[in-house]
Amino acid sequence: MLHVEVWRGTEQGHLQEFAVPRREHQTVLDVVTEIQREHDATLAYRFACRVGMCGSCAMVVNGRPRWTCRTRVAAAVGSGDRLRLEPLRNCTVVKDLAVDMTRFFDKWRDAGGVFASEQTRDDDFAVVPPSSPQRQAADAGIECIGCGVCYSACDVVAWDADYLGPAALNRAWTLVNDSRDSRNAARLDAVSRRGGCEACHVHMSCTTFCPKGLAPTYAIAGLKRAMIRHAFGARDAKSVAPE
Amino acid sequence: MTRLSAALFVAQRLTAAILAFAVTVHLATIIYAVRGGLTAAEILGRTRHNGWFLALYLVFVLAVAIHAPIGLRNIAREWTAWRGRSLDVALAAFAAMLAVLGTSAALALFRA
């Protein structure tokens, strides 16, 4: 049997204990679903795809932020049999394991995370060579699923509610390296303000915990270089990827 | 605003590099100097009319005066609710104080 403690309530609440049978290849999300279906139908949590694409099932599992659909119970509990499930840190808890992601995604917008182009439908396709440094720098960060694990793991977000956070800055960095994008100057202004890329302390928790194996820390380092170039030199320096 | 935050960011890192050098020389000199006991006369004997020490400490003081207030500004904004113009003015005053006191100390050692 697994001894599962689950957060119940909002910002104030308590841990409730459940006993769930262990099963082969069981994921943490399987456990949460079993609790809701078999033990307590009032448990609130969030999931959609169950295959690591949608980014909606992230929770804090035994103190670590994880995507629960792709986390096997065996990997989370180790040799023990205790599982503690809490909502993502740094987000307001709506109920139980479901958090409000509004601020998280507002910050993507605030970091200039929207693609903008001056091309029209009459223009030909843009050619982006796959081997170009810019394309490769964008590729390195493009697979983000917006799960909020990095945001939950980040100490700077915990200290400073205005910090844009690793996911939003990673998104900005992929667009800085998008040769088709036309709003780079405004984006670099946005990530240079208070709470922007310079607030990062390089603790690397985002990079440690990202379930997709991305490295927002390096994206933020890239933004810092881009910020400096933007402030002191090349007005529209696009290529800022390291060699 | 971009330019200011970028300038502060760069200034803090450049001065950190200078301080890494200056602090090393400073500590090495201390360790060397205290071997036979430490007296005011011995210290002043080393620094009086020594252009190298004066140059080192003037650079040191200037780097500290730039580096420390920027770091304190970041800490204040991260850990307290104090931000905005009053914070910037207070830290500019702190920077000026460090520069004036430090420079006068370095000059005093040179002229003593």
Could you explain the architecture of this structure?
The complex is a heterodimer of chains A (243) and B (112). Chain A has 243 residues and is of the alpha+beta class. Chain A is built from 10 helices and 7 strands. In chain A, a hairpin with a 2-residue loop joins strand 6 (92-95) and strand 7. The longest helix of chain A has 17 residues, at 216-232. The mean pLDDT of chain A is 94. In chain B, helix 1 (2-33) packs across helix 3 (51-79). Chain B has 112 residues and is mostly helical. The model of chain B has no long low-confidence stretch (mean pLDDT 92). Chain B has one domain (2-111): Up-down Bundle (3 helical TM bundles of succinate and fumarate reductases).
Protein topology:
The complex is a heterodimer of chains A (243) and B (112).
Chain A: E1 2-9, E2 13-20, H1 28-39, E3 58-61, E4 64-67, H2 73-77, E5 82-86, E6 92-95, E7 98-100, H3 102-110, H4 133-141, H5 149-153, H6 155-159, H7 166-176, H8 184-192, H9 205-209, H10 216-232
Parallel strand pairs in A: 1-5
Antiparallel strand pairs in A: 1-2, 3-4, 3-5, 6-7
Chain B: H1 2-33, H2 40-47, H3 51-79, H4 85-111
Helix pairs in contact in B: 1-3, 3-4
The spatial strand order of the largest sheet of chain A comes to 2-1-5-3-4
Q: Indicate the percent of residues in helices of chain B.
A: over 70%
Number of helices of chain A: 10
Shape of chain B: elongated
Helix content of chain A: 25-40%
Shape of chain A: elongated
Global mean pLDDT of chain B: 92
Nutshell version of this structure?
The complex is a heterodimer of chains A (243) and B (112). Chain A has 243 residues and is α+β, with helices and mostly antiparallel strands.
List keywords for this structure.
heterodimer; A: 243 residues; alpha+beta; Ubiquitin-like (UB roll); 2 domains; five-stranded mixed beta sheet; two-stranded antiparallel ribbon; 10 helices; B: 112 residues; mainly alpha; 3 helical TM bundles of succinate and fumarate reductases
